[in-house]
Every structure is written in C-alpha cells, then in structure tokens.
C-alpha cells in the first residue's frame, strides 16, 4: 500500500494480525538444555528445538511466545533449571500445562 505525501511516497505497514506463537516445553536435557516444540501460525505444525536456557529465554521474548509445559514434570524441570536452589521462585513455576487445541 502506498500513500503520496508532499511529493514523496511513504510506505504503510500492512495491517498487523495476530499470529499464533507458542512454545511447549517437553523436557530438559543434561541439566542444561531446554527441549521444546515451537508453533508459529498453524497449531498443527511444530518444530522441535533444543537450546540452552538463556537462548530459550531470548527466543521466547523475541518471538512473543506463550509458554506452556507438556506436563507438570516438564514444568518442574524447567523451574529447577531456572532457579536450582528455589524452584518455586522460578519465573516458570506457574506456566500452564499445554492443552491440545482440539
């Protein structure tokens, strides 16, 4: 879309639309890496990824993802990885358990 403005052409951004972005934590590997599924757009398509906690945190922030855990065990493992001495103080201690969109 273009708009003329005092002799110049200014490009307008396309209308923003919400894109479904979600991370489902499935486990922790070697007490260092977060194992997760990433969904972007179609909830039926997911990519399995593994990242260190810091990279996972950055990825989720940059992608504006909703974070959920595949199970209570996965949530507890993520909380222990984030805050080993006090897992209940972890920012991940209260994330939701993934509910399949059926």
Provide an overview of this structure.
By secondary structure, the protein is an alpha/beta fold. The N and C termini lie far apart (37 Å). A hairpin with a 6-residue loop joins strand 4 (33-40) and strand 5. It is built from two helices and seven strands; from the N terminus they run βββββαβαβ. It has helices at residues 53-63, 72-82; strands spanning 2-5, 8-11, 21-29, 33-40, 47-52, 66-69, 96-97. It has one domain (19-97). The longest helix is centred in the middle third of the chain and has 11 residues, at 53-63. The strands form two sheets. The protein has a five-stranded mixed sheet with strand order 5-4-3-6-7. The chain is globular and about 40 Å long.
Helices and strands, with pairings:
Blueprint: E1 2-5, E2 8-11, E3 21-29, E4 33-40, E5 47-52, H1 53-63, E6 66-69, H2 72-82, E7 96-97
Parallel strand pairs: 3-6, 6-7
Antiparallel strand pairs: 1-2, 3-4, 4-5
What's a concise summary of this model?
22% of the residues lie in helices and 36% in strands. With 102 residues, the chain is an alpha/beta fold.
Note the main attributes of this structure.
102 residues; 36% strand; alpha/beta; 5-stranded mixed sheet; two-stranded antiparallel ribbon; single chain
| Structural domain tally | 1
Structural class designation: alpha/beta
Spatial ordering of strands, largest sheet: 5-4-3-6-7
Cα distance spanning the termini: 37 Å
What is the helix content?
A: 10-25%
Report the C-alpha radius of gyration, rounded: 18 Å
Q: Return the string of H and E elements.
A: EEEEEHEHE
Total number of strands: 7
The profile of the biggest β sheet is: 5 strands, mixed
Q: What overall form do the CA principal axes indicate?
A: globular
Contiguous runs where pLDDT drops below 50 for at least 5 residues? 1-6
**Which band does the percent of strand residues land in?**
35-45%
pLDDT averaged over residues: 83
Number of helices: 2
């Amino acid at each position: 879309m273009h708009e003329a403005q005092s002799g110049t052409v200014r490009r307008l951004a396309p209308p923003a639309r919400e894109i479904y972005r979600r991370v489902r934590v499935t486990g922790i590997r070697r007490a260092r890496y977060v194992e997760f599924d990433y969904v972007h757009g179609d909830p039926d398509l997911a990519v399995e990824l593994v990242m260190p906690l810091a990279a996972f945190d950055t990825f989720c922030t940059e992608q504006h993802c909703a974070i959920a855990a595949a199970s209570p065990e996965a949530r507890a493992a993520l909380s222990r990885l984030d805050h080993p001495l006090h897992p209940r103080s972890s920012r991940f201690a209260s994330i939701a358990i993934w509910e399949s969109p059926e």
